[in-house]
Amino acid sequence: MNLKHHIWYSLCISFTIMTMPVSSWADIAQRIISLSPSATEILFAIGAGKQVVAVDNHSNYPPQAPVMKLSAYQPSLEAIVSYKPDTVVITFDVIGIKAGLQTMGVNVVHHTAATSLDDMYRQIAELGAVSGHQAEAAQLSEQIRTDLAQAMEQIPILDDPLRIYHELDAAYYSVSSASFLGQIYQQMGLINIADAADRHNSGYPQLSVEYILQINPQLIVITDQSGYNRADVLRRPGWQFLDASRQGRIIQVNADIASRWGPRIVEFVRLIVANIQP
Amino acid sequence: MASITKSSADSIQHATSQAFRLPRFATLLIAALLLGCGLASMLLGAAQIPSIAIIAELLHIDSGLTKTEVTIIWQWRLPRVLLGMLVGASLALAGAAYQGVFRNPLADPFLLGAAAGAGLGATLAIVSDIPQDVTPLGTVPVVAFIGALVGVSLSAALGRAAGRSTAALLLAGVATAAFLTACQTFLMHHYMTSIQAVYSWIIGRLVTSGWNEVNFITPYFVVGFGIILLHRRELDLLRLGDDEAVSLGGHPRRSRLILILAASLLTASAVSVSGLIAFVGIVVPHLIRLTLGSSYRIIVPLSAIAGGAFLCLADLLARNILAPAELPIGVITAFVGAPFFALILRLSRQLL
Questions:
Q1: Interface pTM (ipTM) of the complex?
Q2: Which of A194, A249, B61, B157 is the most buried (most CB within 10 A)?
Q3: Are B87 and B311 in contact (CB under 8 A)?
Q4: Chain B residue numbers touching A198 (CB-CB < 8 A)
Q5: CB neighbours of B76 closer than 8 A, spacing ≥ 6?
Q6: Nearest CB to A197; choose among B68, B77, B324
Q7: One CATH from 3.90.550.10, 3.40.50.1980, 3.90.650.10, 3.30.360.10 for A31-146
Q8: What residues in A contact B48, CB-CB < 8 Å?
Q9: Ordered structural domains, chain B, with CATH
Q10: Per-residue pLDDT reduced to its tens digit, B197-220
């Protein structure tokens, strides 16, 4: 037996030894696919990143996440199964993907979009349980709670709470308190102008620009993926008269952070808090 | 005896001239409807501003409104109302012209693939990062115009290959539209980050940013309207068939080409600002045809006015039903247009 064969042989042995105990943990997911950018961020934050074999094309954080050509909106059963997952995390159960995966013996964790912080904490705990990182999951939730509480302590106490307008796109779609982000704004004591336009609690009403101008928001949040910036907003007729414009409170936020429920929500809250100081 | 013959000849002549003349009362009524819809649209909106103050402001009388309210009226509500009228008139005119050119009562910008082609063109121009000033007219409308022409030509070619029947053209149009829409949807899904944007474009929306959209669409509307209005007699000749049209001094091939170009221009400019607002192009010319007469000398001008009024009314509802939230206008045009059209069809069964 030459050296080359010897190395191969020992590699095979060590590989077998390494994988043996792992495959005997029957209940713990070893090959996870995440079709949810939020779940991807959570899994990596609780130390389950090594068990993640593939993530969908929008899961761009953290950078080491194994991004593959998988779509969360138009999932392909064949493409998913080709990674031999034992667990798949989904947000949208479209085209029967959940049932399809289950028939093939794959465990499906169906986490719909969180609409509150409690939803998020519950999903973190579940992902911890599925991946065998319960302790880290509990720790992460605790950390987020503490950080959020600390950030919220910095919110100035005002007689009249600030009116906020969160703009999703150029057609004036917004978030109301029925959405995750809206819940955060509510906890921050802000008045969300989109609530009056969301009688059916859809979470994402389309506002009339006349209404936005007349209600005069004191804080405007736009995202960095809308194709325009603060200066463009100020160029819209009449928007320069708004309190938010005059007080320099038009904030541009990272669209990913502002649309996911995960550990980076702390960054988002800190940014908003920093911008509402008198 | 002679006097009887004379009077019957007179009455025939009278009847013929009546068939081609704009009915005065109906024209006034439709124009009044347009003005009424326009005024109502100016008075009602998500911003609660007293009507009297708005009227005063519009008449340049001191209204006592705040700077923001004045901006709402002049920079947001007025351009939006005008945009609705222009888009509605453009789509109705394009529909009327296509129906005349193809001698097909069901032709409209959507069924012929013109709207889908314009949509594909507009999307291509937006996602491909071509600079917006390649042509003096801007890039999006020009590419959208080419797309609309490609759509109509494909439908016409396919339809002709399948035979000269009414159904062949429409089936070809349906196939073309489906194909072009699929290409466009693919592009949108591939390049756009927001599914919401794709969706709102497909059902059609009237979102303005000040006067930009109105300034953009007006020149195209004037040119397209002018051309079709000048060719209203040729449209009537085309109804008779090519041989008769030639014998009556028409140039059917040339007029067909010019009319298709004008209608496609109108479709393209409307689609580039408002997405795919369905139903206006087919319903409005038919309403006029069914109620007032089948001459294009009547249909063309009245379709333009009625189309403007119809879309203005639809937008009034879209802006106010859920205020301060908005509804996509495409939902209203189909929701109101379809049953209304069915009713008219039912009532006018004898006329067809």
A1: 0.78
A2: A194
A3: yes
A4: 325
A5: A209, A210, A213, A237, A238, B208, B210
A6: B324
A7: 3.40.50.1980
A8: 214
A9: 79-206+213-347 (1.10.3470.10)
A10: 666 666 777 877 788 889 889 999
